[in-house]
């Protein structure tokens, strides 16, 4: 097989009678970075879980350096040099960074763990990655972006020949992405093979050699990246032309719905004041760690406020808990949908029902099964959730469909204000456009939409007005006419002078 490192031939896989992979082929060379692309639900993650031993294949063959392999579990794949970095974090929050990196491969001294050696080796990996982090830190105390970097360090510590990266940059800052790409190129130059899954198509030119595109569990096309334009890739992924990536609509701004005055909540939320109007999408821009997520959590009552006032339709209200906010007609679509937005071991129906139990019970407090089924079916249909049925377990949905379920359970309540925190992170271009269209429909109904995104192009494309955060403060406001990447970046780096 010459330079071929990985060859997957005619791989098929079914779940509960639904065929999700249909004779898929994939080839990866030594010293090559291959982008595996496709919409959510195309089969990318399933194919990679088979390669890494998490799932067993129903049919097909896998070769590593020409050797036929049959992986029964992830340990067998790791022993052959296959490592995977999952889209969603798999860290043990109560363990240190080094303990997570060496989990299952602990360094022993007699009958005891050699913490000193593990800490030192983990610190070297982190330093090589250019990460400002101590190996002794507790994983649960890290930000999402830092946890992602620990996952990367964990995979690199295994000295893998094949490194699978599933949306590795979705939670990283520009600097962290640059550091990651530097490491990936180093690994490629050492002859390792990288399979890179990403929906951030603008990244591909900077890092990828070849592409392989899946759609509906089947191969569509493969080839050198320079043979494709971004429009070509999108067309092959979705099977149609995407005419407008950011289908923003114009609505007349209505009356003020929400007003926040001098909100304070710890070091990341300092004297925040703004208003949100009917039929408006208010974008929130800023760099990683600017305090945007912390602001929404304080506003919604997840985190404690130290001071400030909140008004809904001109009347001061208290949002000391999420329950308060929900009863007032607010909804939060959180940054981490799996951790904070879904009960992943429950079905789609159960997730949709949970925040709406008060509206699907009768006067005696007994739940109406018929009403519950109708609400879940209507939500699945209206949001085009791709699932076998309403009883499908939520963790088995693609990222885009999980996000639709998170959104759908709140839309049942007809909220007046929706706080979207990174709603399109880790989902494909087709699902992104569907989320934008939902935002447009809410806008037309007079709902106030607060929209946080780390993708500047997305904020510019969908927002009517943009607030810029830096260092826990609002450092500027831009109208749609004033907003451009340069102006946003200037305001997003307007730090206070500390000396």
Summarize the structure in words:
This protein is of the alpha/beta class and 499 residues long. The protein folds into 2 domains: 235 residues, 3-Layer(aba) Sandwich (Rossmann fold); 237 residues, P-loop containing nucleotide triphosphate hydrolases (Rossmann fold). The protein is built from 17 helices and 22 strands. The strands form 5 sheets. It has a 6-stranded mixed sheet with strand order 6-9-10-3-11-12, sandwiched between helices. Strands 18-19-20-15-21-22 form a 6-stranded mixed sheet, sandwiched between helices. A 4-stranded antiparallel sheet has the order 2-1-4-5, covered by helices on one side. Strand 19, helix 15 and strand 20 form a beta-alpha-beta unit. Helix 4 crosses helix 5. The radius of gyration is 24 Å and the shape is globular. It starts with a strand and ends in a 7-residue tail after the last helix. The model has no long low-confidence stretch (mean pLDDT 89). Its main location: membrane. One of its GO terms (molecular function) is ATP binding. InterPro entries: AAA+_ATPase, ABC_carbohydrate_import_ATPase, ABC_transporter-like_ATP-bd, ABC_transporter-like_CS, P-loop_NTPase.
């Amino acid at each position: 097989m010459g330079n071929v490192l990985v060859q997957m031939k005619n791989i098929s896989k079914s779940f509960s009678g639904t065929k999700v992979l249909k004779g898929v082929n994939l080839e990866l060379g030594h010293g090559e970075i291959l982008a595996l692309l496709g919409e959510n639900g195309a089969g990318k993650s399933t194919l990679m879980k088979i390669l890494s031993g998490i799932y067993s294949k129903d049919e097909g063959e896998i070769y590593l350096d020409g050797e036929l392999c049959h992986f029964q579990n992830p340990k067998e794949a790791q022993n052959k040099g296959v490592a995977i970095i999952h889209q969603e974090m798999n860290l043990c929050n109560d363990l240190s960074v080094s303990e997570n990196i060496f989990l299952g491969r602990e360094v022993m001294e007699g009958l005891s763990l050699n913490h000193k050696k593990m800490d030192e080796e983990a610190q070297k990996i982190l330093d090589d990655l250019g990460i400002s982090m101590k190996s002794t830190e507790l994983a649960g105390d890290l930000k999402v972006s830092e946890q992602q970097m620990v996952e990367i360090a964990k995979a690199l510590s295994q000295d893998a020949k094949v490194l699978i990266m599933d949306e590795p940059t979705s939670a990283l800052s520009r600097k962290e992405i640059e550091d990651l790409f530097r490491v990936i190129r180093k690994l490629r130059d050492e002859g390792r093979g990288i399979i890179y899954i990403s929906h951030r198509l603008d990244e591909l030119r900077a890092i990828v050699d070849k592409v392989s595109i899946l759609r509906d569990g089947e191969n569509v096309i493969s080839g050198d990246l320079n043979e494709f334009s971004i429009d070509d890739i999108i067309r092959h992924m979705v099977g149609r032309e995407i005419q407008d990536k950011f289908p923003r609509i114009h609505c007349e701004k209505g009356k003020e719905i929400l007003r926040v005055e001098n909100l304070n909540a710890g070091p990341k939320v300092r004297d925040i004041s703004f208003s949100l109007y009917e039929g408006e999408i208010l974008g929130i821009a800023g760099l990683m760690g600017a305090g945007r997520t912390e602001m929404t959590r304080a506003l919604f009552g997840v985190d404690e406020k130290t001071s400030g006032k909140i008004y809904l339709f001109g009347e001061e209200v208290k949002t000391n808990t999420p329950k308060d906010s929900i009863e007032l007609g607010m909804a939060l679509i959180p940054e981490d949908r799996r951790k904070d937005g879904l009960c992943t071991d429950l079905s789609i129906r159960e997730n949709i029902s949970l925040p709406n139990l008060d509206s699907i019970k009768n006067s005696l407090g007994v739940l109406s099964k018929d009403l519950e089924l109708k609400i879940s079916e209507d939500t699945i249909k209206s949001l085009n959730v791709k699932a076998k049925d309403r009883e499908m377990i939520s963790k088995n949905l693609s990222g885009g469909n999980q996000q639709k379920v998170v959104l759908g359970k709140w839309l049942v309540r007809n909220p007046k204000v929706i706080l979207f925190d990174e709603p399109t992170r880790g989902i494909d271009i087709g699902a992104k456009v569907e989320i934008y269209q939902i935002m447009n429909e809410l806008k037309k109904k007079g709902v106030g939409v607060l929209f946080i995104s780390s993708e500047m192009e997305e904020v510019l494309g969908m927002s009517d007005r943009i607030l810029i955060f830096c260092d826990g403060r609002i450092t500027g406001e831009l109208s749609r006419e004033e907003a451009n990447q340069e102006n946003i970046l200037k305001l997003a780096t307007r730090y206070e002078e500390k000396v």
